[in-house]
Design brief:
The complex is a heterotrimer of chains A (about 260), B (about 650) and C (about 260). Chain B is of the alpha+beta class and about 650 residues long. Chain B contains 17 helices and 19 strands. Chain C starts with about 25 loop residues before the first helix and ends with a helix. Classes of the chains: A alpha+beta (about 260), B alpha+beta (about 650), C mainly alpha (about 260).
Chain lengths: ~260, ~650, ~260
């Protein structure tokens, strides 16, 4: 049965544009059902702001099923809020209590410039993928899908990494603003699969070096793993580091010899 | 205006049509391809795969998405799987059987030629996606695993945990990203289509609005592909993502592209019921859950014990009782209506009595908790996060919700709309699913269109245009369209009424859901058609959009989308009213058998209804394309 | 930091330019990225950990009496003697350590600058860290304290500079340098002993994160052995701290002296 939360005090970061100064603004939500999701609570606030002829709070969101990776938000100092393995859109108000103060801030990193209020630009992630996060397999030339058996544990390991939704929580949570978890997950997904071997070292080299142009460095805090809505393990970062080192010494003409 | 809807399916047996087409199609020489510019709007499965493949072939491609990155497209949310007639399980599958199942699942309202081609290329899709590194589920021996899905008696569904759509989209996105990196595709992100431009009857390009700056800009091209998804958000509460909308398709429709079968909408049986009036969307639980979950309601409407305490003989396993041979795997429309009737009869479960149980206790007893966790663990977690109940201990509560729209822009065999040079792919077109889509077929269709159909058919259109000039963005038609778009958005800002776009969206959604949802009646549809124009009038007088049009303004974006939903909603109701039969997702209460099953009228309605825009939302003109069935026999769909 | 978004073009061809990245010799190439710098941190870290551990073990000679410790110090000066002149091998080792230290410092400095640049505007509300430990977040602080301590420690016991330790350099009865006496002289001073203890706790904290972290940085990750990585970190840092801290306590308690 649904209960209602009363008197929530929101402190929300408002910023008009990329080049303007922002500030926290206080709002009060008098009453909200605990069945509502966090973003629905912001919807309710925005409806009220529009009816008061004010500007609604801008935030990124789309599928609200925790899979598209569009939503973000630093909630009370945690990327995607207090619930583990959960993107902001799947966070529900039953995690909060009446009278709670909730501080909402955009994700901060120089590679994620603020567009407006709580919305940031995460296209640096795309630059990383464009530099090598793919298997070159033009349409039409693929062999039969069952031609190369892939051991189940390998397929599972690839899938564990491939689950990454590209939300950027790892960067937001990292005290250094590093994107190693994202990049490593993307690399590991393809690098463990037999199909990904041909470009394995070229891929890791290009992606790590592109990442380097935008983000900070990993100092192994582990905050990224804790913030990741898919709980991708920082083990992938170690695997990336290993492949990156190898990429510098591998004689690529002899790759086929393993 | 007389419009003849020519499907352009090559003559001869339907099984040979695609190879006949491919042998006869006009080609563009490799060196000439770069002389052509193709615009792809939308970067979901169909859009990303089309843009990547066209760029690989050598065309100049401009891709547009209103998201921050192509990988956000809503294809990502598909959970269950993708069908392909691989017959890896050796259980009797074949191209013909997939073709037949899809035609039958669509209640004999889809075009045979397109569906057969879809079944043929389905096998290539799996090969392609595996080559790209999609981590499909594997058996211990390393070969691909399959599961069964609603509406099929073979296991032909390939899957990647409960995130098949995500993995396929990421695969297609990676191919697109590669082409962007190589400079073959120019990507315009956070850019929304606001108009389609035609010059002398051909599609000349599009007009877009930059969501970050409000700039309205024209883009000219030789051909334009619409891969802009479906319009399920017209219901407000649906399983679609918040930003899904009909605007791109609708703007094309207003410029002369016929809109086919808008009333064919699919209601998905397994969604989490609404729990609260502020709810913004409904969440789908994969249909694959029905492989191991059993749907039931208490026999007694006044039942108020917890599910586990209700004895077996006081439970009604509705699908197993009504459809013994398919049981819990009956197709979506049929399962949905069974759930609706149970709830309507007062036997609903949950605090609001608005759902039915989907119970895994038998599966847990039979297979063990860890096997169930392996198959559905992430779905169970998702359910628990949303509903606050643990499905290992308590049965899930589910209820149908709007999920997919079979209707869309009318296209011929080449996926070309009635505007030459304008193509529609994926959910945005109407072509492959008839009146109902089978599970795990949407991903298949999106990728088939983008990877294996459009790259052939667009060449056929472009080849004769070689070295002929096309209208540039300085053409008056572009300027007019830009001007109209600017005025439209200024208009929303200028109304300064009292209600937000969301308020109107909720209201339209409620009317459409009540009268044009799972069950439709003449009376209800007429009521909707009288209420909608009045509400639309109010929208145009009382809308309030705060802020300005020169910076990022989500309320303004929403206003434009809701406007188009109004117009579409009216067309949906008209289409539903005119189609005096029940078929697939379109269920008219007046047309049902004694047992309450859909009753088709093949004599009068074995056709596609394609609507022509005339300037007034309620005055659109209905055209028809007769459907002929040669390879399959029209039969009453039975899943008993 | 912020981009201006008045007029936006398409996003395109961004990866192409990077292909032309200039290839440098292997090590420099590797060191050119943050991942490579972490390799440098880890490898120099291993060298420094090795030193710290052996330094502690050698100092345990203290418990065997003055003569043993002084002999040991003398032995270090005569490493590889007579192949090399006295102290040369010691200076080669010291040179290696100094190089490793400088590499460690350079990498730490450049990475810190990189990290600051990656988030020029800090979070304006309080962060609620989930797993980042005190050790991991205070690496810079503990590192600097340890560096200062090492400097002081060298002046105190190795060089006996100025008035820091007037005893350093004195000879014992056998005519060897009386290292033992210098240690006792130094650690009998209570403030010095306290500084010594605190600095070693800082060192232990630094080592705890450093040891665990180097496995990640070097890509030594195997699910079978991963659980040993924290054990190794705890073990090594505890060993060093307990060993080192025992010296001032032993001196003040009169066990040594």
């Amino acid at each position: 049965m649904s209960n209602h939360l009363k008197n929530l005090k929101l402190k929300i970061w408002r910023q008009d544009g990329p080049n303007t100064a922002g500030r926290f603004q206080d709002y009060v939500i008098d009453e909200i059902s605990d069945e509502a999701s966090f973003l629905e609570m912001l919807d309710v606030l925005n409806e009220r702001l529009i009816s008061d002829d004010e500007l609604p709070v801008v935030f990124d969101h789309d599928c609200r099923e925790g899979i598209c990776g569009t939503c973000s938000l630093m909630i009370n100092g945690q990327a995607h809020g207090p619930e583990r393995r959960t993107a902001t859109c799947q966070l529900h108000m039953r995690k909060f209590k009446s009278g709670d103060e909730i501080v909402i801030e955009p994700w901060r990193a120089s590679a994620f410039p603020i567009i407006k209020d709580l919305m940031v630009d995460r296209s640096a992630f795309d630059r990383i993928i464009e530099s090598g996060g793919f298997i070159t397999a033009p349409t039409g030339g693929a062999p039969d899908a069952n031609l190369i058996p892939i051991p189940k544990p390998v397929a599972d390991a690839a899938m564990d990494s491939a689950e990454c939704i590209g939300c950027g929580a790892c960067v937001a949570a990292c005290p250094n603003g590093a994107a190693n978890l994202f990049t490593a997950a993307k690399i590991n997904h393809l690098n463990v699969l037999p199909q990904g071997q041909a470009e394995r070292y070229k891929r890791v080299e290009a992606m790590v070096e592109t990442m380097d142009e935008y983000f900070g460095s990993c100092t192994n805090h582990g905050e990224c793993q804790a913030a990741c809505p898919k709980e991708i393990s920082i083990d992938v970062i170690a695997l990336m580091n290993k492949d990156y080192r190898k990429s510098k010494v591998k004689n690529r003409k002899e790759l086929s010899r393993g | 205006m007389t419009i003849t809807l020519d499907s352009k399916i090559p003559s001869g047996p339907v099984a040979d049509a695609w190879s006949t087409y491919k042998s006869d199609v006009k080609l563009v020489a490799p060196g000439n391809k770069r002389k052509f510019k193709v615009i792809v709007v939308g970067t979901g499965l169909a859009g990303a795969s089309a843009a990547a493949t066209l760029a690989e072939l050598g065309y100049q491609v401009d891709a547009f998405t209103f998201h921050d990155t192509p990988r956000r497209a809503h294809s990502i949310a598909a959970q269950g799987g993708i069908n392909a007639a691989k017959n890896y399980q050796g259980d009797g599958d074949s191209v013909y059987r997939l073709f037949y199942d899809t035609i039958k699942g669509g209640d004999f309202r889809a075009r045979e030629g397109n569906v057969h081609r879809l079944a043929e290329v389905s096998v290539n899709i799996i090969d392609q996606m595996v080559a790209q590194g999609v981590p499909f589920a594997r058996e211990y021996g390393g070969l691909l695993d399959n599961r069964s899905f609603g509406g099929a008696q073979v296991s032909r569904t390939f899957y990647a945990r409960g995130q098949t759509g995500q993995q396929l989209l990421l695969g297609a996105y990676q191919q697109l990203a590669r082409q962007i990196g190589l400079g073959n595709v120019r990507l315009f992100n956070r850019t929304e289509l606001v108009d389609v431009v035609t010059v002398e009857g051909r599609c000349a390009g599009i007009v877009t609005r930059d969501l970050m700056t409000g700039d309205v800009v024209s883009h000219a091209a030789h051909a334009v592909v619409m891969a802009t998804g479906g319009y399920g958000n017209v219901f407000f509460l649906s399983t679609n993502a918040m930003a899904c909308n009909v605007t791109a398709a609708w703007r094309a429709h207003r410029k002369g592209a016929l809109f086919a079968n808008p009333c064919y909408t699919q209601i998905h049986p397994t969604c989490i019921p609404q729990s609260d009036p502020t709810q913004s969307k409904l969440t789908l639980m994969s249909e694959s859950l029905r492989n191991d979950g059993r749907v039931w309601v208490p026999k007694n409407p006044d039942e108020n014990r917890p599910a586990a305490e209700i004895p077996e003989d006081e439970r009604d396993y509705i699908l197993e009782r009504l459809y013994p041979s398919y049981g819990n795997l009956a197709p979506r429309d049929i399962s949905s209506r069974a759930a609706k009737r149970s709830v309507d009869s007062g036997r609903g479960v949950g605090p609001l009595k608005n759902g039915v149980y989907l119970d895994f206790s038998d599966a847990i007893n039979r297979l063990g908790r860890h096997v169930v966790a392996e198959r559905y663990g992430n779905l169970f977690e998702m359910y628990e996060r949303i509903a606050g109940e643990n499905p290992y201990d308590m049965p899930m509560r589910i209820y149908p919700a709007s999920h997919y729209t079979m209707g869309g822009l009318w296209v011929d065999y080449e996926l070309q709309t009635t505007i030459p040079g304008l193509y529609a792919a994926g959910e945005a077109n109407f072509s492959d699913h008839g009146a109902n889509r089978l599970g795990a077929s949407a991903l298949m269709q999106g990728l088939a269109d983008g990877y294996f159909v459009l790259p052939y058919t667009i060449g056929n259109y472009l080849a004769p245009m070689l070295n002929k000039p096309i209208p540039g963005t300085d053409h008056p038609a572009f300027k007019e369209a830009e001007q109209a778009a600017r005025q439209r958005f200024q208009g929303y800002l200028g109304i300064k009424g009292t209600r937000s776009p969301d308020f109107f969206h909720r209201e339209v959604g409620r009317i459409i859901w009540d009268y044009c949802g799972m069950e439709r009646t003449q009376q209800g549809l007429e009521k909707a058609l009288s209420e909608l124009p009045a509400l639309y009038e109010e929208f145009r007088k009382d809308l309030r959009v705060t802020g300005d049009g020169t910076s990022l303004n989500q309320t303004l974006e929403k206003a434009g989308r809701v406007d188009d939903f109004f117009q579409l909603g009216m067309l949906m109701c008209r289409d539903a009213l005119e189609r005096e039969e029940s078929c697939g997702g379109h269920f008219r209460a007046e047309h049902q058998t004694d047992e309450g099953e859909a009753l088709r009228d093949d004599d009068k309605f074995a056709h596609v209804a394609a609507w022509e825009w005339t300037g007034e939302p309620t005055q659109s003109v209905r055209h028809t394309e007769e459907l002929t069935f040669e390879a399959v026999h029209l039969a009453t769909r039975s899943y008993k | 930091m912020a981009q201006t978004i008045t007029k936006r073009g398409p996003v395109s061809g961004t990866a192409v330019a990077r292909v032309s990245r200039k290839r440098k010799p292997f090590l420099l190439d590797l060191y050119g990225t943050a991942v490579g710098k972490k390799y440098a941190m880890a490898i120099s870290g291993i060298a420094l950990i090795g030193f710290v551990v052996f330094h502690m073990i050698g100092n345990l000679k203290m418990y065997m009496g003055a003569s043993d410790l002084n002999q040991y110090a003398h032995f270090l000066e005569k490493l590889l003697y007579p192949i090399l002149p006295e102290k040369v091998m010691l200076w080669i080792l010291r040179g290696g350590l100094i190089a490793m230290l400088l590499l460690h410092l350079h990498a730490a400095y450049t990475l810190t600058v990189l990290n600051r640049r990656a988030r020029p505007v800090k979070y304006q509300s309080e962060r609620d860290y989930q797993v980042a430990s005190f050790a991991s977040r205070s690496m810079r602080l503990t590192g600097i304290v340890v560096l200062l301590f090492v400097t002081w420690h060298l002046l105190d016991l190795t060089f006996g500079a100025g008035s820091i330790n007037t005893y350093t350099g004195s000879k014992d009865a056998e005519g060897l340098k009386d290292v033992y006496g210098a240690v006792v002289f130094s650690l009998e001073r209570v403030p010095v002993a306290i500084f010594y203890v605190l600095a070693n706790i800082m060192l232990g904290t630094h080592l705890f994160h450093g040891v665990w972290s180097l496995f990640q940085s070097l890509g030594w990750n195997n699910p079978r052995f991963n659980k040993w990585r924290t054990s190794a970190a705890t073990g090594i840092s505890t060993l060093v701290v307990v060993g080192n801290v025992s010296f001032p306590i032993a001196v003040l308690a009169g066990i040594v002296g």
